[in-house]
Specification:
Largest sheet: none
Strand content: under 5%
Radius of gyration: 21 Å
Shape: elongated
Structural class: mainly alpha
Mean pLDDT: 81
Distance between the termini: 57 Å
């Protein structure tokens, strides 16, 4: 596959490969948590709790490994938005596969996850590579006005 270069010179195909690797680790983490929780909870509750746990780990792995960006509280709080579509698709998919198609609750989450992966990549990339807002300049850091500068309008 020929790499796609963005205006900033980032190789998107490399990010896609790293996203897939983190996704595999995240899916494994989710699935182990899901199966452990399934022994004590309903499949829907087990799915939600396992999803939240794995999403937290996913944020840090995607920050450092996939997008090579510093994890910030702002990104951490926005990251669930990238997973909202994933959550809706996988939760609806699990329900549909188990209740309607009568598939095993042990395999339904894996099948539903495959459908959600491309959507999650696009959304997480937009959030994780979003530029940070610059901090407002302090009074002594603002450019000095000169005699030629017009007076500020109030």
């Amino acid at each position: 596959m020929r790499p796609t270069i963005t205006a900033k010179g980032q190789v998107i195909s490399g990010q896609m490969v790293r996203f897939a690797m983190v996704g595999a680790v995240n899916t494994g983490t989710y699935y182990v948590c899901y199966l452990l929780l399934l022994t004590r909870l309903s499949y829907v509750v087990a799915h939600v709790v396992a999803f939240l746990l794995s999403m937290t780990g996913s944020f840090f792995l995607h920050s450092r490994f996939t997008y090579r960006t510093r994890p910030t509280l702002r990104k951490f709080l926005l990251f669930p938005l990238s997973n909202a579509a994933n959550f809706l698709i996988t939760t609806g998919g699990v329900y549909l596969l188990v209740h309607v198609m009568r598939l095993s609750s042990h395999y339904a989450p894996l099948i539903a996850a495959v459908v959600a992966i491309p959507i999650t990549f696009v959304l997480s990339r937009a959030i994780m590579l979003r530029p940070e807002r610059p901090a407002p300049l302090e009074e002594d850091e603002r450019p000095a006005t000169t005699m030629e500068d017009p007076a500020p309008v109030s």
